[in-house]
Structure formats: C-alpha cells, structure tokens
C-alpha cells in the first residue's frame, strides 16, 4: 500500500516535470459562455468589530460584563497621579444595561485623574477632530465643590497634545453627560498614546466621582455617528466585496451558551441600552457595532448582507430541545423583520423606522446557525434545521435559507437549497482541490464557501499552534493555493454563488487566530498576500465564464477565463502554486483581439508574507503585455496573475 502510493506520487511528479520541460501548456478558450458569474460571488465574512472596524478608541469604555471590584474590571484603565480607581456596581447605574461605573477618588493636587490606553495605543492625527464624552455623577453631594474636568490625549512621552475642559459641579448627584471635541496640536503615531481625564482645582482634595460610558471617537467612515474606523473600512471597500456574512460565525451565531448568544435586540438604540456580551474569543463584545450599524455600513458600501440567525446550538456543546425552540425562532423572525419587515405590521420593523430607516434593507439569504455539524449530535441538527426552516420559510417565502451542517451529512429534511461550506487546509490541499466542486450534481442545490484559508503547511497543524507550523500570516504559497481553489469557484459558479476568506481582521496585539486577511494595529492597516488575491479576483470577476482547456486537477498551474460584457474584455486568472515558472499559450476564438493587454500580478517566494515589519514584501504590480489571438504568458513561480484583453 505504501509502495503503491509512493509510485503514484512519483508518476505524478515525473508527468508534470515532463510536461513543463517539454514546452508550453496550450489553453484553448471557447467564446460561448457556459454560465454567468453570480452577483454575490466575492464578499466578506466577519466576527467582531471592537478595537478594529468599529471606530471607538477606548477599550473597556463602559465596564460591560466585568466583575466589579476586580483588577480585571479595570482593564485598559490607569490612575494618573495617586488617584484611586475602582469599578463598582453602582447603586444608581447610568442605565439598567450598564450596571458598573468607574469610581474615582481624586487626591489633592492638580492633574490627577485616570487614563485609557486604547486598543494597544491610540492614533493621534492632527488633521482629525476627536469627540470625547462621558457620564459623571457625585455619589455623595459635595455642594460647594466646583471644578473642571479636562479630557484629552497625551503621547507616549506623556506630553498633552490635545485637551478640552468642561465644568463639573459637586452638587451633581444625577448622571450628566459631558461631551467635548479637540484637535491635536501634532500627529503622534499610535503606540503608547493615552486618553486622559483629569480634575482641576487643587482644593478639590478627596472628591469621589463616578464615571460611566466614556467614549472617544475619531472621524468615521462616511462620517457616520458611532461609525467605522476609516482606514479599516477602506481596506474592506478596496476589495470590491458584494456581500458581508454577518453577524459572524462561532462568536456571534453560537455563543458559549444560549444565554451568551448574540441577540439583535440588545444591539440597537442608545449605547446605554446595550449590555454587551462575553464573546467567544476571550474578550467582551461591546455591541456598540450593532445590527443597524452593520446594515448602514453595508448600504454605504454596496454590500448585501448574508445574515445568520442563532438556531439553538451553543459552542459550549448544548443544544436546545425541540420543544424549547419557539422563543429562539421568534427572535430569529424578529431579527429578520428588523432588516426587511414592514413598519406598519411588524414591531421590530417599526423600531428600525424609529431609528431612522423605514425602508427595508436588502436581504436574500439567511443562514441557520454556523457549522451546525461541529460537535453537535446529528439528531439535533435535523430537528433544529427542520423546525427553524419550516417556520421561517412560511413567514419569509422570498428568502433562501442556508444550511450549515456538512453537505448531505446528515441528509436534512427539508432538503437544503443552499449550503455553507467551510475549509481550513494547507496551501497544497487548496491547489489539489481546485476541482472540489466539479463533481457536484447540478440539481439546484447551491453552495456558499463561507470560510476558507490556508492556515498551515503541516496537515496536522491546520488548527494547531505556530510551533507546529500554523502560519502567522498568509504566505505567497497559501495565497497561490487559495487562488487555484478560487479558479474552481468561477468554473463552478453555476452552483457556487458566494465565497469569503476567513477570518477577515486581526489586531496584531490581541490575536486569537492566525492567519487573517487583514492585520492592523492602533495606527496602521496591513494587507496580506491573500488580501491581494481576494482583491484581484473580486475586481476582475467578469460577468460570464468562458470554458477553456481544463487545468490538470493534480497539476500545479490553474486558470479561469471570464468575460466582462460591459468592457468587452476577456479576463484570464492564472495561479502558479509551485516555485518553477510555467509557460502558457492562450488561444482565443475571436477575430478582433487587442495587441496588448494589462497584467496585474503578485509573486514571491514560498513563505513570503506581508507583516507589520515588512508590509509590502508582496504587492501587486501592473504592466502591459503583448496579446493577440494566440499569445504566450509565463507565470512566475508562486504567482497569481490577472490578464485583461479587449476581444470581440
Ligand atoms: C464551445 O462551447 C459550446 C457550448 O458549450 C459547444 O457547443 C461548442 O462545441 C464548443 N466549441 C468548441 C470549439 O469546443
Ligand atoms: C475648588 O473647590 C472648592 C471646594 O472644594 C471651592 O470652594 C472652590 O471655589 C473651587 N475653586 C474653583 C476655582 O472652582
Ligand atoms: C477621603 O475620603 C475617605 C472616604 O471617603 C476618608 O476615609 C478619608 O479620611 C478622606 N481623606 C481626606 C484627606 O479627607
Ligand atoms: C430581546 O428579545 C428577547 C426575546 O426575543 C427577550 O427575551 C429579551 O428580553 C429582549 N431583550 C431586550 C433588551 O429587549
Ligand atoms: C443534489 O444532489 C445531491 C447529491 O449530489 C443530493 O444530496 C441533493 O439532495 C440534491 N439536491 C436536490 C435539490 O435534489
Ligand atoms: C503590539 O505589537 C507590536 C508588533 O508585534 C509590538 O511591537 C508592540 O510592542 C505591541 N504593543 C503593545 C502595546 O503590546
Ligand atoms: C510562443 O512561444 C513559442 C515558444 O514556446 C514560440 O514558438 C511562439 O512563436 C510564441 N508565440 C508568440 C505569439 O509569441
């Protein structure tokens, strides 16, 4: 058995060596499209926004979901001077959803107070106006006391570079919000910078003040209040994505327990009414980036949501019994109605209208749970799917519901029209599975590749540790493997309607999973090799697929040919998944083919990555190449190329 495998492997190697050394591979293109490229083919998948896409600059801004009195409750907060800080469970909280406050006792002296380190730094940009706000009250009236609170930013050296003051009165025992704006005197990068609040009036010794819901916002993407961090949002928009899978995978749509699941109705309205939740990846989710913020962001960026609902199964392993599903189905209906319902007949839709969006949002696909087969008994998968889909499809016949268990295993009733398929694998697996979908029945069932990424070169460390070979950053080899797999999406786009790399975003100072498509720190965004592959494919997807000579499924070079009807261009995508260059000859069946075309390409060595230290090791290069009815193209080792040629 072992010997036979070795011989087969040797045979493959010999064959591919002979074929490349004996000359170019000829690719004959058929001018008759076999299928159109579906409008949602390339998009994004997302898990959580705090400290990343969500613009808020303060970490632990409202002491949500922490235990009062513990050191952990003070995460990211620090005393300035000999101030005493404590998170307390307030006898008169700022809101029912935010029971905790920061209680600060100010000693005598000036400039005493507290600071917040942000999400491992705070970007200070002198071209920005920041908005800072907080709620305060004196737990015990200090009737004669009056002073000023100064809110501002200081750099890593401790120099104040922005500040603004507001009066405070010791008689104020009810919660009062103060809000200031300031513009820094100079730009300061991000690392080590802090937001601070100090109390003036040196005779104000030993005043105790409670604070709640402190916030610091820079300008946001499209100036949305409570909006998105501009550079992160722009890095997403640059990919030209068509959809956004939200509110996420295991973090949002599972929760560790039913009680800690994401619930749409605790993420809407005033920030004071959002309790936040313990997320699955080790930190609290503020839910400041709530369902309406998501939906408005999608509208701002021409993305369509693919929205998931919680379906009775938590990551911790517990499934709700069939008889107990009704409240969760009702909540899923409410969530869907918040997005598309009629304010005249639906309370969640009326809530949406009251929040400023009477028109329904666009929605065609709803996912039932996430990775429903993982760790869950097949029997619960069946009844949960059936109970949810039967009920939801009566109320929303216009929607398509996506199953998230393994394809056809178990066989579900009713038969799913759509499946979400996830795969984390090696670069080589992706290259060797470019034909993954070619054998699937063409019988109406459609597929969403909702998560995929090359995570390790070691098959035993796909979900393992960096020590075992888990990749820290996407590599050129991984990106080329993913691109090979993606040529298979295009060839099979009659049944693959959408695909998204995962995970999308990573703060380099607090990372639960590697690699990620986009990395960032508090100041800068870093685009990976895989990012550029997503961008090349998304921006060059074309309108229809043109059949051509098939790549060798077990080979090393893969391609896909599409046509853009609007621009009259033929678009060739080529991925070379190994170090040796590969010579290709394209033959086009058109009378008029331009004598030159554009080439956009990324290439590098096997393990080349873009990192915070070396962010542009691999970056796309655009050039002009000679084309014609027949033209040659050499794909460099480990490269992904897109050629566009006008032809008719
Ligand atoms: C091109 O594709 C069409 C439609 O599938 C087919 O009928 C035709 O035979 C193909 N032409 C060539 C040259 O393969
Ligand atoms: C400082 O606070 C004291 C009471 O503690 C008050 O008498 C005094 O007027 C305040 N000074 C200023 C400048 O507000
Ligand atoms: C400060 O207040 C605490 C309790 O509120 C009290 O025990 C302490 O004596 C006070 N210190 C001064 C210097 O007034
Ligand atoms: C959210 O909705 C669920 C039921 O769907 C309900 O139990 C819960 O009280 C609601 N929470 C809030 C804050 O409205
Ligand atoms: C499509 O074919 C698969 C098997 O390849 C089968 O399991 C599935 O039920 C079929 N879908 C429909 C809608 O018939
Ligand atoms: C954040 O990560 C960068 C890169 O690894 C490192 O240089 C920096 O010291 C980290 N900052 C903090 C605050 O941990
Ligand atoms: C393509 O390359 C081959 C050699 O591999 C050469 O014979 C042929 O002339 C080239 N064709 C064009 C159009 O340059």
Automatic annotation (TrEMBL):
SMART domains in the record: Alpha-L-AF_C (SM00813)
Residues making up the signal peptide according to the UniProt record: 1-23
Domain Alpha-L-arabinofuranosidase C-terminal: 450-639
EC main group: hydrolase
Pfam families in alphabetical order: Alpha-L-AF_C (PF06964), ASD1_dom (PF22848)
Record field: catalytic activity: Hydrolysis of terminal non-reducing alpha-L-arabinofuranoside residues in alpha-L-arabinosides
SUPFAM superfamilies: (Trans)glycosidases (SSF51445)
Pathway entry: Glycan metabolism; L-arabinan degradation
GO MF, one example: alpha-L-arabinofuranosidase activity
GO terms (BP aspect): L-arabinose metabolic process
Annotated PANTHER family: ALPHA-L-ARABINOFURANOSIDASE 1 (PTHR31776)
Family statement: Belongs to the glycosyl hydrolase 51 family.
Stated name of the protein: non-reducing end alpha-L-arabinofuranosidase
């Amino acid at each position: 058995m072992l010997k036979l495998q070795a011989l087969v492997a040797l045979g493959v190697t010999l064959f591919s060596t002979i074929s490349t050394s004996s000359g170019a591979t000829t690719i004959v293109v058929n001018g008759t499209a076999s299928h159109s490229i579906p409008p949602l083919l390339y998009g994004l998948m997302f898990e959580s926004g705090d400290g990343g896409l969500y613009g808020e600059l303060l970490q632990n801004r409202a002491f949500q979901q922490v235990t009062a009195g513990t050191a952990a409750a003070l995460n990211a907060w620090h005393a300035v001077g000999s101030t005493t800080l404590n998170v307390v469970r307030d006898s008169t909280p700022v809101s029912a959803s935010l029971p905790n406050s920061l209680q600060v006792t100010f000693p005598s002296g000036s400039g005493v107070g507290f600071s917040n380190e942000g999400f491992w730094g705070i970007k200070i940009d002198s071209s920005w106006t920041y908005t800072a706000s907080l709620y305060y009250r004196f737990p015990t009236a200090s009737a004669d006391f009056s002073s000023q609170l100064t809110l501002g930013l200081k750099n890593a050296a401790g120099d104040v570079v922005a500040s603004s003051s507001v009066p405070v009165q010791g008689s104020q025992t009810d919660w009062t919000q103060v809000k200031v704006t300031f513009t820094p005197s100079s730009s300061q990068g991000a690392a080590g910078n802090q937001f601070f609040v100090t109390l003036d009036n040196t005779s104000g010794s030993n005043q105790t003040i409670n604070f709640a819901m402190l916030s610091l916002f820079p300008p946001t993407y499209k100036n949305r209040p409570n909006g998105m961090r501009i550079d992160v949002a722009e890095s997403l928009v640059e990919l030209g994505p068509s959809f956004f899978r939200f509110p996420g995978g295991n973090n949002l749509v599972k929760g560790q327990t039913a009680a800690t699941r994401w619930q749409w109705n605790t993420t809407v309205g005033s920030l004071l009414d959002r309790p936040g939740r313990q997320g699955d990846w080790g930190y609290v989710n503020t839910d400041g980036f709530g369902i309406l913020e998501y939906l408005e962001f999608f509208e701002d960026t021409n993305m369509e949501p693919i929205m998931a609902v919680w379906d009775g199964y938590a990551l911790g392993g517990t499934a709700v019994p069939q008889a107990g599903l009704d409240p969760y189905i009702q909540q899923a209906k409410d969530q869907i109605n918040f997005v598309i319902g009629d304010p005249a007949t639906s309370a969640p839709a009326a809530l949406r209208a009251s929040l400023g969006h009477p028109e329904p949002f666009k929605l065609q696909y709803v996912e039932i749970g996430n990775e429903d087969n993982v760790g869950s008994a097949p029997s619960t998968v069946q009844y949960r799917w059936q109970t949810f889909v039967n009920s939801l499809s009566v109320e929303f016949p216009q929607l398509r519901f996506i199953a998230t268990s393994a394809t056809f295993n178990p066989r579900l009733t009713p038969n799913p029209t759509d499946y979400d398929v996830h795969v984390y694998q090696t670069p080589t697996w992706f290259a060797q599975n470019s034909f993954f979908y070619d054998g699937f029945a063409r019988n109406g069932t459609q597929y969403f590749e909702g998560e995929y990424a090359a995570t390790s070169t070691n098959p035993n460390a796909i979900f393992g540790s960096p020590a075992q070979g888990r990749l820290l950053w996407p590599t050129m080899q991984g990106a080329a493997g993913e691109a090979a797999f993606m040529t298979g999406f295009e060839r099979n786009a009659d049944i693959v309607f959408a695909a998204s790399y995962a995970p999308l975003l990573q703060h380099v100072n607090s990372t639960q999973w590697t690699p990620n498509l986009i990395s960032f720190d508090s100041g800068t965004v870093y685009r990976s090799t895989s990012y550029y592959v997503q961008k090349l494919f998304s921006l060059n997807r074309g309108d229809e697929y043109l059949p051509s000579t098939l790549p060798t499924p077990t080979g090393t070079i893969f391609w896909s040919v599409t046509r853009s009807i609007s621009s009259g261009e033929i678009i060739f995508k080529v991925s070379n998944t190994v170090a040796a260059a590969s010579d290709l000859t394209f033959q086009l069946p058109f009378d008029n083919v331009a004598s030159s075309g554009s080439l956009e390409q990324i290439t590098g060595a096997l393990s080349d990555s873009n990192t915070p230290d070396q962010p542009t090791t691999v970056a796309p290069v655009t050039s002009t190449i000679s084309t014609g009815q027949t033209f040659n193209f050499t794909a460099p080792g480990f490269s992904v190329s897109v050629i566009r040629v006008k032809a008719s």
